[in-house]
Design a protein that fits this description.
The protein is of the alpha/beta class. It is 33% helix and 24% strand. The chain has three domains: 89 residues, 3-Layer(aba) Sandwich (Rossmann fold); 204 residues, 3-Layer(aba) Sandwich (UDP-N-acetylmuramoyl-L-alanine:D-glutamate ligase), CATH 3.40.1190.10; 133 residues, Mur ligase, C-terminal domain (Protein-Tyrosine Phosphatase, Chain A), CATH 3.90.190. It has 15 helices and 23 strands. A seven-stranded mixed β-sheet has the order 8-7-9-6-12-13-14, with helices on both faces. Belongs to the MurCDEF family. Mpl subfamily.
């Protein structure tokens, strides 16, 4: 079957394309912005990409069009599909019908940490010899591909609360019907489609309603929004992590790189790894709980985590130039920015940290997170804010509220010039964006040489 995917370079759609190819379909696709890591992964898989949405891409006519949730009415390709009556479907629906049917689905939902936690869980199952399938919204470095079908009934999926398509406004995750569900955390996000936090909580409860009574729901005790979701009604056994939960940790190093795991008060072993930050310790706990549900004993899960290599673009060290270290990080929410910088600060001590932040997500562009931004960068020594031309709120005003030195730049070149003068050997530069950021990482590394 010839499947054509509109919006193929999104992390979800790109991963779905890999699975469709593995199932033996002829897969093509298009996107407005074709950029790595997804574009390089797709090309390596032999998937033909078209830049833009000109209807000429439907020659020859595909058997099925999968429409990504970034596509809206008025898009020339979408209008062509509707006018010609071509068969179309949303990505989550296609996945549910053709990949997840009849499998033991382990879903990872939450505002933060979905990609990292899904990657951890897939790796723990792989390490235990369970050869799971997975679909992850990033490229886990233990696998070097973001999706595969796997050889067993187990399938790990990053379960996003964002909507499915312009014709299906339900959250993607209601299509997945997991047996094991991790609810990682819950804060307000996606201001372009949700009016407030209670609206997101309702979607999470739709997910909870689909989990069988023989399944398992795992969530941290520290998240009041998740407790409210569970209190709306839960028909499934639960396990909790963190303070007062069944799964707890004893930190053995302040930066989170070494900790002991306890289950129901009994020590299970020590994780020693390259990751930092309390958020990753929390991710590890829910991972071990989910893995245990499918038969991986905690001691084996702990061994696997000690060999975990994280995900591309999650505090990924991309360059070391004249003693200056550059990291690429996907953080695009104040909480994620703060926890990432906190983990780095605890690891590097007093070494200078420069944070470069692009407010690129839809919620950022709408200004939904601006009140939390000044405090989110407290662990940096210097922050550079990138002001794109279409930002509809006062970024300099937010920068002025920062307690650390703050600069606003309206060009990539301006950022590079500034960092060149600021950074000295021993400096750590963290570039935070959920997009390609105009290739800033590579250009900065070049300029620092």
């Amino acid at each position: 079957m010839h499947i054509h995917i509109l919006g193929i370079c999104g992390t979800f759609m790109g991963s779905m394309a890999v699975l469709a190819k593995e199932l033996g379909h002829h897969v093509t696709g298009s996107d407005a912005n074709v950029y790595p890591p997804m574009s390089t992964q797709l090309q390596a898989q032999g998937i033909e990409l078209t830049q833009g949405y000109d209807p000429s891409q439907f020659d020859p006519v595909p058997d099925l069009v999968v429409i990504g949730n970034a596509m809206s009415r008025g898009n020339p390709a979408v209008e062509y599909v509707l006018n010609k009556g071509l068969p179309y479907v949303s990505g989550p629906q296609w996945l549910s019908d053709h990949v997840l049917q009849g499998r033991w689905v382990l879903a990872v939902a939450g505002t933060h940490g979905k990609t990292t936690t899904s990657s951890m869980l897939a790796w723990v199952l792989e390490h235990a010899g369970m050869s799971p399938g997975f679909l992850i919204g990033g490229v886990p470095q233990n696998f070097s591909v973001s999706a595969r079908l796997g050889d067993t009934p187990f399938f790990v999926i990053e379960a996003d609360e964002y909507d499915s398509a312009f014709f299906d406004k339900r959250s993607k995750f209601v299509h997945y019907r997991p047996r094991t569900a991790i609810l990682n955390n819950l804060e307000f996000d996606h201001a372009d489609i949700f009016p407030d936090l209670p609206a997101i909580e309702r979607q999470f409860h739709h997910l909870v309603r689909t989990i069988p009574s023989e399944g398992l729901v795992i969530y941290p005790t520290t998240e009041p929004a998740l407790q409210r979701v569970i209190d709306m009604g839960c028909w499934t056994p639960v396990q909790t992590t963190g303070a007062g939960g069944q799964w707890q940790v004893k930190l053995l190093s302040e930066d989170g790189s070494k900790f002991e795991v306890l289950f129901e008060g009994v020590a299970q072993g020590v994780v020693e790894w390259d990751m930092t930050g309390q958020h990753n310790v929390a991710n590890a706990l829910v991972t071990l709980a989910a893995a245990r549900h499918v038969g991986v004993v905690p001691s084996m899960g702990i061994d696997a985590l000690s060999a975990f290599k994280s995900v591309k673009r999650r505090m990924e060290k991309v360059a070391d130039v004249n003693g200056i270290t550059i990291y690429d990080d996907f953080a695009h929410h104040p909480t994620a920015i703060a926890t990432t910088l906190d983990g780095l600060r605890k690891r590097v001590g007093d070494a200078p940290i420069i944070a470069i932040v692009e407010p690129r997500s839809n919620s950022m562009k709408l200004g939904a997170h601006r009140d939390g931004l000044p405090e989110s960068v407290n662990d940096a020594d210097q922050v550079v804010w990138y002001a794109p031309a279409n930002l509809g709120w006062d970024l300099p005003g937010v920068a002025a509220l920062c307690t650390v030195p703050s600069k606003v730049c309206d060009s990539i070149d301006g950022i590079i010039e500034f960092v060149k003068h600021q950074a000295k050997p021993g400096t750590h530069v963290v570039v935070m964006s959920n997009g390609g950021f105009g290739g800033l990482h590579g250009k900065l590394a070049e300029a620092l040489k």
